[in-house]
Amino acid sequence: MLADVGDNVREGQTLITVDPQELQFEVDRQRGLVTQVRAQLGIGPNDPPPTDPKKIASVQRAEADLFDADHKYSALSKCIKTS
Q: Do the Cβ atoms of 65 and 59 come closer than 8 Å?
């Protein structure tokens, strides 16, 4: 940073310089995070984002787990009521 709060500056003066390598590192890091999240969601690197969240593999698994848990709960509830 070439100027700080309270410094007098003139129009056109450079206030900050950015290292292109640092910028590229951050871009690469962010792209890696996007790739990681897409993989977690079961979306391929060249696939468009799904328009329906229910088509995402992790959402489908969660729905199946919920369905299974609901049925187990219902069955157990019936057993407890009849005891």
A: no
